[in-house]
Structures are given as structure tokens and as C-alpha cells.
Amino acid sequence: MLNASLQELASALADRRISSVELTRSALDRIAAENPRLNAFVHVDEEGALAAAAAADARLAAGEAGPLTGIPLAHKDVFCTAGMPTTCASKMLANFVSPYDAHVVAQLKKAGTVLVGKTNMDEFAMGSSNESSHFGATRNPWDLARVPGGSSGGSAAAVAAGMVPVATGTDTGGSVRQPASFCGVTGIKPTYGVVSRYGMIAYASSLDQGGVLGRSAADCAPVLSAMAGFDPRDSTSLERAAEDFGRDLDKPIDGLRIGLPREYFGAGMDDDVRAAVDAALDTYRKLGATTVDIELPNSKLAIPAYYVIAPAEASSNLSRYDGVRYGHRAADYADLADMYCKSRAEGFGSEVKRRILVGTYVLSHGYYDAYYLQAQKLRRLIAEDFRRAFERCDVIAGPTAPTTAFELGSKCDDPVQMYLGDIYTVAINLAGLPAVSLPAGFGNGGLPVGLQLVGDYFAEARLLNTAHRFQQATEWHKARPAGAGDDEGSPT
Amino acid sequence: MSLDIDQVKHVARLARIELGPGEAEDALAKLNGIFGLVEQMQAVDTSGVEPMSHPQELYQRLRDDVVTETDQRDAFQRVAPATEAGLYLVPRVIE
Amino acid sequence: MSQADWEVVIGLEVHAQLTTASKIFSGASIAFGAEPNVQASAVDIALPGVLPVLNRGAVDRAIRFGLATGARIAPRSVFARKNYFYPDLPKGYQISQYELPVVAGGDIAIRVGDGDQAYEKSVRLTRAHLEEDAGKSLHEDFHGMSGIDLNRAGTPLLEIVSEPDMRSSAEAVAYAKALHTLVRWIDICDGNMQEGSFRCDANVSVRRRGEQAFGTRREIKNLNSFRFLQQAIDYEVRWQIELLEDGGSVHQATVLFDPDSGETRMMRSKEDAHDYRYFPDPDLLPLAIDGEWIDRVRASMPELPAELALRLQRTHGLSAYDALTLTSSRELARYYLDTVDAAGGELAKLCANWVMGEFSARLNKAEIGVADAPLAPTRLAGLIRRIADNTISNNIGKKVFDALWNGEAASADAIIAAQGLKQVTDAGAIEALVEGVLAANQKSVDEFRAGKEKALNALVGQVMKASRGKANPSQVNELLRRKLTN
Ligand SMILES: [Mg+2]
Ligand SMILES: [Zn+2]
Q: Which one of A433, B17, C390, C448 has the lowest number of neighbouring Cβ atoms within 10 Å?
């Protein structure tokens, strides 16, 4: 039943063929069974979930239900949840219980969803493998020796393993799309400013954006519609009317112009990824789309620019973790300065510390112009590339990542190799554009390959439409890793 | 360009992160790897390009001058490492 | 060499807390004196995930200041993060403005010294920018620890930075006072220095006369009274000159003034070389201020103290000094103008004397502000009219003022009538008094006739005494002189 689509679940709930409590119970059971080997969840709230499910059932019975009422879901542990641990998978916040709900959490609560727990992630969302979590790495359900991607790896693994039908994520440089790609699920990161960042613990403020991971574009659409929208508490939240991002799902796509950036199809992409992406593009052509070659000439600068801007913002965003008002405080220290230095040294993991050091350096006296300012100028060049490209096409397509999921531990000691894996995703965050990753087939070892679709600003509905038409024509998104497809079938 | 060990220690001090034995050396090696990657930026002539600090090139929205918050001290201090008489306690502050 | 061989160079940075209801980036109250941390919201204590949203009221006040000083108001300004660690700074950075401040340029006219020594000059402003205040560290002993109160964190500040245009502590104090008057006048800051609403940092350096380059400056932090500002600068100037004359050199430093010892000392917390790593705050887009907004604010501006002072000189015939004194606060100026309105414009000078003299002295003695004075301008005007029309003398006027101040009657006329204070102007009655006094004081009469002018004063005093103060002094004077010289 957990493999059914949201629409099927919603109609089963509405027809009372299943109750939210039953649905939630089965999600909790599945988490209990799968989490010991996947480590996708860092916190499960059985009691709260069942209470919320009972409340949803009451609303369903009263005929007051919306499309998400009673649907179990999980939040990435970067979102603040009142009365529940919010850790960012860091020792720094291991004992932090948020006194308030993030906007996204409140919106989805209002929509009647049932929060079952919080998913594992790279510490403070810094990573592409989920290995930097203080609570241990999450494992890829397709191959337990491999990473699920990151930083929303827990959410991607949870959805892939059928623990929850949908989960939230955040995407600063690919953190929704890359794990979606590695775990064979669909993930969307909307235009910067569409989802409020209030209560979403900041990594890099000008790049961070909340998103959704689900089994299909059709499943992601209503969740994104519920969590998006104007929030006066986030000064960068856009004052746009509420939107149904699923409104165009079924629109035909003939005549759609798909831009293929030359730079995304060159060296660096593994052959098995290339084969799956090429086949997906053939499918699109069969569906009536045309492909056009485009250029994003500054693509190669996206990683350097990103790995200056993101750490710079992070170094400042993470200064609040000083052991004074909340969070980890060292047990032994000589004085105030020593308390800061020890609390932060103990509370942060090595990747977080590394990025703080990089960010501190590039902002420091004498280096600002050469690094930070230069990176911001490149950011404009990169955004301009996309602006020009969208004069020639409606969406841009390419691989989400150059490889399929890699082995746990294989890049841990080499940050540069880890960073290079973000080659196709970070430019989209620098420009603030919306993008989707959807399952496009399998590579070597039966590992999922993701296809990335990038849209112009506010083209979320078109992206979901483009992904959905593909998913109506293919079965890739229905494939389940071994052990996750036991109860495949239609709702009871 | 590459960093030296004193720069790493200086930056760690600015960032209030203590580096244990051997950590500065390890950080130096990794940071130099990262700066090797970042260094590609320097080859690009960006004269005349306006820096872009935000994806939205808009102006900020303001709020009206209204008091909307109420006292939540107890809830906020429940997660604090050390408090007394409503104050957060820290090792003595020297001005 | 001596102090006269040195030139003092001073620039001031003033932090004025703005009179908004809520904080600059959160909806918490900024009222002074609350229990610790009850006005520290989630945003103010920098909980994970919270975000700042700028208060329009703070920007309004920055615009008022810009208009009042003839400054440029930036159509686009930027908020930046100033990064440093301190327990009263919850985010580990202060949101401030750096490269593009909201207000740039402008100037403040000051008047230094009094009497013949007085001179006027203009102090240029570099900029004024919006930023958030920090919390407070309390150093009472909590088992050897400090307590942090974040109620003040996020209070809106306008940091007003002057050019290094001042050349003495007197000029610095005159500038600080003029600024203090102005910010209260345009109602953007309550000016309460004890509560820290208006705090001065002074950048002080010295150079040998004739030298072009500035000397190395030291910054004296957080001076919260005009007296401390003067003392701290005077001490610092002496210290720097002595050091340089002994062959030493001044190093840039941040120092604190200790009012008990009257000395300045290095701040230990600032010994660390600081590198604030300013960069545009990614949580806040640039601030736009359009002409329409500026026009709206302009329409709400009161007449400014400098403008009013000029008007008082031109149309009320007041001296520059009187005009400056009466415009030292909006309340005092209002009181004066209301008094003149009630007394009649031709009595402006007399009104000015009474408002600056007896009235101000009584306020000081009672330690109250104009708003709390128990004497309405119309009643003071009633008294002034009776002096002007010779019903009472100036001296009797003081008696009547006391009675009015103490609420003994509702008008000067009532007091004059009740106490029989009406001045004696009847020539016959005064002549009788004069005759009596001349007869009884032959010694003074002889002295005057011998050329001792002062003896006349004694005789006038005797006549006034005999009249119980009610005789018209100028009439008495004239009559005495006539009788003695005939
Ligand atoms: Mg105050
Ligand atoms: Zn300041």
C-alpha cells in the first residue's frame, strides 16, 4: 500500500477503504523494519504520528479533508519541528528541541499530513553522500554498500524504501536532486523564494531552498503546492499567489523544446549514466518534444563559485552555534574564548569545520575580492548563461549527477572528488532556478540514474508536467529496490 | 596560491574552532586541495561584471512597526546549557 | 613643546537608539527596563532557522535624519553582516550597513563657547547607517560567570559617523549636544543617555601643528554623558601628546574611559586583531527608498532647530546665543513660542529672558522636564505682560513667579491683587519716600556728592525697601539723581 500513488492513497482514505491510522501504522512498521539497516530516520515519533493520524481520520470522517489529509510523511531534520528533536544531524544540536515549527512544517501540518519522523542528512546539509551525519551514514536501499547521496539522503532512502510516500528535503547545491537520482526517486527544488526558509536551518542562505522527494512528479506536486507560498517571516519569500503546481501535469508536451547543454554531455559523465540519459531523451522525442543544442559556457566555473559562496555564507550562518543559548557546550574550558573554540570543535564534524574554515578565509581581509567577490561575478555570468539558453528552449535536460551512487567511504577523504560530483546541480542554485530529478533508468549494478530537468524561473508546473509525461510513458519510477516492493499493488 | 599552516591557524582562531594535534596539518592539506579547485576562477576576466549576491534581483520587503512577540523566555531557555534568574550564563566576559 | 604645538583631531560615532515600538528585525518590544530576556524573541536570540525582516519604522527615522542634515538618502542601500564572536551578539554577526549606507553626507552646525569667544562651525557627516544593537553582559557574580540579557539585542540603531572635523573637546561636546538636540527634535531617539539611548564613541588623534597627515587614532568607546566625553577626550589628548613628546608612538586601539579614575584604558576584549569579514547579508535583499517615500517623510518634518533659531533672530530680535539656547529642545522652543504667542510678539525678548532665566532655573532645581512644569505658558505670559506695563517690577515679578509656580493662584493678576504688589508709580508717593530716605541717610548723600557714584545704589535700595519693593525702580533712580544734583 505504501507503493500506491498519493492520488490512490487519497481516494482510498476518502472512500474509507483505509484509515490514516492504518496507513500511518504501516509506515511506522516499515520504518521499524527497514531503518536498522538503512539509517534513514534519526527520529521517529510514533505517538505523535498516530495521534495526528487519528485527527486526520476525524477530518476525513467529517468530510473536511484535502488531498493530503492523513498522508504520512517525513521531514528532513533540517526543518524545525516544535517539541521534536531538530538536530541537522549534528552533535551540536543533538539535544536541541525546537520551540517552533518551520513554515514548511506548519503548512504541511495544516494540510493534514501526518509527520512520522525526521530523516537523516549530511551534517548541516553539507555533503553529497549523507556520510557526514553525526548519527552515521544512511545507506542506499538499492545497494547497502553505497551512499544514498546527500544531503537529503535520508529522505531519498526513506521514499525509495517505501517507508513514507513523500518526504521533504532542501537543496543548496543539488541536495534534493542528487539523492533522488541515487535512490531512484523524483525530487523537485523550486525557484528560490517559492518555499519559505523560515525554520529551515540555514546552510547557505542565498542558495538554500526547500523541496520534495516522492515516487513521482504527480506525488511531488500536491506536497510542493502545500508547502510553498508567501511567508512574511522570510524577507526573501516571494509574494506570489498560491499555486497548484500539478495543474499542468497531463498537458501534452509535443513541441516542447528541450535544451541540451553541450557542457553537460562532455567528458566526466560515466557511460552507464550517459546511456540512460540518452535513452530518456529518445523517449521525449517520441513524446513529441524536440531537442536543441545549447551552451552554458560558464558551467565549469559553477563548482569553484559555489564552493566559495556556500562556505562563505555557511561560516557566518553557523556562528550562532556557540554553546551560549542552545546546542553543545564543552564540559571543560579555561575561559570564554576557550569555551567557544572547544564547543565548536566538539560540536561540528570535520566537513562542517572545513567549510567554515574555507568560508572564513574567503571573506577575510585581503582575500574578499579575489574569492568572494570574484565568485559573485561568476555567479552573474552563470545566471546569464541560463537566461540566454531559455531564449532557445523551454526546459534544459541532462544528467543529475555524473555517476550513479558510489561506495560508502570512497570519497570521504577527498573533498575535491566529492565536490566534483555536484557539477550538474550547483549552477542551478547559483541562478536560483527550479529543477527536477526523475528516475531515467538503471546503470551498472542495477543502480538508478537520474535525469535532471531545469526550468526557467517559476516554471515548476511545466517541469512537473514534463516529468509526469515521461513517467506516464515509462516504468522507471515504479521500480523498487529489493525488500521495498513487498506490498506493491493497489490500495486495499 | 596555497595556504600555510599559520594561515590555517589564524582562520581557525577567527572561526573559534580549536584544532587538535595534527588537525591543522590535515586541514591545510584539504584546504589546499579545495583552493586548487577554486583557483580556476582567477583565470576569468570579470571586469565590468556586477557581483550577484542573490538569485532574486529584487528589493527587500519591509514589515510594519508593530510589536507581535510575547514573552517565551521559559520555552527558549529550556534548551539552554546554563541559565540563572532568566539570564544566559557564560564564562566571565572581560571588556 | 607644549599642548599649543599640537593640533587635536576628533571624529565622533554616535549610536542613537531609534524610537520604534518594535525591534529592527523582529516583532519584539524595545521598551527599556523589562525583566531579563522576556523581550528576546526567537529572532533576537538567533534560534536555528529564524530570519530577519526589516522594520519600516526604523527606515522612516533614518530618512528623517537624512532630511534634517541635508544628507543624501540612498535610493538603494545594502545590509551587511559584521562577523565577530561575543556572547551579547547571538548570531555571531551584527546586521549593519557597510559599503552602501542609507544616509551619506550632510552636516551639523555647532556653536562653541560663549560670549565674545563664541564661534560657529559646521561639522560634516560621513554617513549614518541602520544596524541592530547587541544585548548586555551583566558582570555581577553568578558563581564567577557573567549573565547575558538579550532584551536590547535587535534594538534599532542609527550609527551617525562624523568626519574628523573637531579640533577640541569643546567642539566635540558642542557637536554631540547639537546632534542630541536634533535627534530628539525630529523624534527619532529619546536621547536618554543614562539608559544608553544615545552613546558616543570618540576617535581621537593629535598631530603637530602644520602637519598634513592625521596621527594614529585611538577610539574611546561608549561615552554616555557629555561630561565623560569631555573628560575622556582631554585625558586622551594629554596622554597621546605626552607619549609622542617622550618619543613614543601611538598605536591604533580601542579604549574605555573609567569615570572614577578619569583615565582611559585598552579594552581587553578587543586586543585580538579583528577581521569582521563584512559581506552582504544573504537573508536581506537591498533596501529601496523612492522619492515618494522621502516626500512623505518630508511632509511630516517639523521646523528644524537651526531654521527656528534663525527665525527667532530675524523676527524676534534675539541674539544668536538666546536663539540657540531656546532651540536646545523642541519642548523648550514650543514653550517659548507659546509664551510669546500669549504675551504678544513685541515682548519676545522679555519672554526669552524669563524662559531662559527663572523658568529654566526652576526646571533644573526641580529636576523635571518642560512637559512637567507646573506653569503654563499663558500664565507666564500674564506675568510678563504685567512687568512690561509697569504694573510690577522685575524683582516683584520673581515673587509672583514663585507664587504661580507653587500654584497659589491661577494668574499673575490675582497674585498681584491679593498680595498688594502693584507697583507704586504715583510721582507724589515716590517723592515722599525719596525725601524720607534722603533725610535719614545724610552720609550716603555726602558720599555721592563727593563723587562716589555707588552711593546712589544704596539710596535706591533704601527707597525700594521703604516701598516694600513696589516703587518703580527707574522712577526712583531718576528722582534721586535729580534731587541730589540740584
Ligand atoms: Mg532607551
Ligand atoms: Zn555601530
A: C390
Q: Find the domain containing C435 and state its range.
A: 427-485
What is the structure's pLDDT at A491?
33
Are residues C308 and C271 part of one domain? no
Any residues with CB less than 8 A from the CB of A116 and at least 6 apart, and which? A24, A27, A28, A31, A44, A45, A46, A49, A72, A73, A74, A164
User: Which one, of A196, A201, A158, lies nearest residue A32 by Cα?
Assistant: A158
Q: Which chains sit next to A, with 3 or more Cβ pairs under 8 A?
A: B, C
**Which residues in chain A are closer than 8 Å to B76, comparing Cβ atoms?**
99, 325
Among the listed residues C132, C135, C185, C181, the one whose alpha carbon sits nearest the alpha carbon of residue C159: C132
Using the 3D structure, point to which of C249, C264, C293 is the last residue of a domain. C293
ipTM of the complex: 0.96
Per-residue pLDDT at A299: 94
Query: If 0-12 CB within 10 Å is exposed, 13-18 middle and 19+ buried, where does residue A256 land?
Result: buried
- Which residues from chain A sit within 8 angstroms of residue B8, using beta carbons? 357
Peptide bond before residue A319 is cis, with ω within 30 degrees of 0 = no
Are C152 and C84 found together in one domain? yes
Which ligand has the nearest atom to the CA of C160? 2
Among C419, C436, C457, identify where a domain stops. Answer: C419
Per-residue pLDDT, C13: 98
- Higher per-residue confidence, A227 vs C113: A227
What are the pLDDT digits (tens) for C363-380?
999 999 999 999 999 999
Q: Is the pLDDT of residue C136 over 50?
A: yes
B93 and A358: CB-CB below 8 Å?
A: no
Determine the residue of chain C that is closest to B88 in CA distance: C148
Residue of A nearest to B86 (CA): A325
* Residue in A with minimal Cα distance to B19: A345
Q: Give chain C's domain count.
A: 3
- Residue to mutate among C18, C19, C39, C41, with most B CBs inside 10 A, is C41
Domain ranges of chain A: 1-492
CATH 3.50.50.60 for the A1-492 domain, yes or no = no
pLDDT, tens digit, 9 for 90 and up, residues A3-51 = 799 999 999 999 999 999 999 999 999 999 999 999 999 999 999 999 9
